[in-house]
Amino acid sequence: MAYSEELIRSLKEKGQVLRRDCIKCIGVGVAGHVGGSCSSADLVAALYFHKMKVDPKNPEWEERDYFLLSKGHVAILQYAALAEKGYFPVEDLPHCKDIGFYLQGHPHLGIPGIEAGTGSLGQGLSLGSGMAIGLKMDGKPNRVYVLVGDGEMDEGQIWEAAMSSSAKKLDNLCAIIDNNGLQAMGVIKDRLPNEPVADKWKAFGWNVIEIDGHNMEEILEALDEAEKFKGAPTAIVAHTVKGKGISFAENQVGYHNRALTQEEFDKAMEELA
Amino acid sequence: MAETNQRNAYGKTLVELCRENKNIVALDADLGGSTMGKMVEIEPGMEERHIEMGIAEANMISTAGGLARVGKIPFCSSFAVFTAGRAFDQIRQSIAIGKLNVKICGSSAGCSDFGDGATHQSVDDIAYMRVIPNMSVFVPADANETVAVIKYMASHEGPMYMRVNRNPYDNVTPEGAEFVPGEPVVLKEGTDVAVFACGIMVIKALEAAKALEGKISVKVVNVRSIKPLNRESVIDIAKSVKGCVTAEEHSIIGGLGGAISEALRLERVPVEFVGINDRFGSSAHNYKDILDYLGLTSDHIVEAVEKINSL
Fold first, then answer.
1. Has B57 been annotated as catalytic?
2. For residue range A67-109, what is the model confidence (pLDDT) as tens digits?
3. N or C: which end of chain B has fewer CB within 10 A?
4. Going by DSSP bridges, is the β-strand pair A186-187/A207-212 parallel, antiparallel, or unpaired?
5. In angstroms, what separates the C-alpha of A131 from chain B's closest C-alpha?
6. What pLDDT, in 10s, does the model give residues B75-127?
7. Nearest CA to A15 among A267, A259, A220?
8. Identity of the residue in B25, B51, B66 whose CB atom sits nearest the CB atom of A128
9. Considering the entire predicted model, what is its pTM?
């Protein structure tokens, strides 16, 4: 095993911490993106707490790696990661969505650690691609990671960016697909079926790695392999479970953006402990 | 001799600016031969500064946002219908909310792409771009002003949209004049009626003023900066005459007429619009025909000035 048990254990725990932060922040009685936050949590934990070169005390550090949340609706997950990493106080998280507060419902520039505004789906990969082009032009080694939702792949712009990124041979760009199989209003395969996802990215000229998006070892191996691969961008197709870690929310369409009852909240916090 | 085609002025100046500033890059969506962004691509030593994005304008605009975020100054060019129109949401979200330093060129704007018809004629881009917070919107009156505007865009931070005409016509502004955003410029003094015009309608307004010489004294104002627009300056000009006319190669809804009327909303000043009357364009065999067909001539300005003067 290339990674120590301690590293794997601590990153798994970070994933759970992020899930707890999200649920605490979403709270009771107000809708929040429970499902997609939980499916992406292990991927985000691996990036911020192991893989990426970042400096929370200097968010605009020139040598940093970039992370973009193209599926911007799970902003709370990225905010949790940024807060736990030390970009801003964890105590600020519950104030997300307060009028005029810096932590808005979707990521936007101005929040420490946020690299671009996202929310209207399909734009994050293009933004990341632009960063990767610019960094390459300047001969810089920084890497760019973009988390894309599988429902988001409905957006045509994702495939425009898939084409241009491979055309420009952006091996400093890594797209991570949170392939949880659900979208806001239903099961993807019953709506606009997107399989075979991995083959689609391969056909667009990407290096593709398929993993279990909740297996920390596989996540770390894929991120390292992506970094080593030269000549094309890498897509990590991470098979995940929407609502992961919360038994009643797992694989449930209804928990995409849902208000929790007090009972659900308590049970979720207990299960994520 | 000064360039009279805005597209050529745009391309040549972009090449110059690329030479001066290593961070400037030109993006095109398979129309570089029309926008003249291609001039960067074919300039020896500049090939890498031109980024061909294929026929994918939405991706071009968001990619430019990423480039700006890592310190580049991207100029994105395509026809106005494909930048302001097709990529509206990308301009709004990827660029404007975060105030990214991206420059957008709406080329072959208005009905200047006369042959291609309604699909390719932007009767609405000023309105789209003007309504987005943080965006600046510039409409140069001629090729000389195009040079000044693009130079300003390259050296000032923030998202900016510039409208460029496809066809050559005589310059009405001096070569090398400074561009100051926000300020309308009086090109010809007059005491009866002020015509606020932009783009090709500036030269038409000057023709109208000449035709009315000895009958009605017309002040011609070049509004090359639709946004920002200094409200006090507009009010001062409007109050120096009996009434105003706006003239634009754009819908009368939401464009220059809208901007001037908003500025004058608390003033007792009549305003008449010369523009495209809530309709799409049409194919034509030449530029003059489509301008005549849509009511964008000096005669239409004369008529509007006479109407205001007789109130």
1. yes
2. 999 999 999 999 999 999 999 999 999 999 999 999 999 999 9
3. N
4. unpaired
5. 4
6. 999 999 999 999 999 999 999 999 999 999 999 999 999 999 999 999 999 99
7. A220
8. B66
9. 0.97
What homologous superfamily does CATH list for B6-163? Answer: Thiamin diphosphate (ThDP)-binding fold, Pyr/PP domains (3.40.50.970)
Domains B6-163 and B185-309 share a fold: yes
Q: Which DSSP helix (H) or strand (E) runs through A149?
A: strand A144-149
Looking at the domain covering B185-309, what would its CATH class be? alpha beta
Residue A161: closest C-alpha in chain B: B59
Domain ranges of chain B: 6-163, 185-309
Q: Which residues of B touch A165 (CB under 8 A)?
A: none
Task: Give the minimum alpha-carbon distance from A157 to chain B in angstroms, rounded to a whole number.
Answer: 6
B66 and A163: CB-CB below 8 Å?
no
ipTM over 0.90: yes
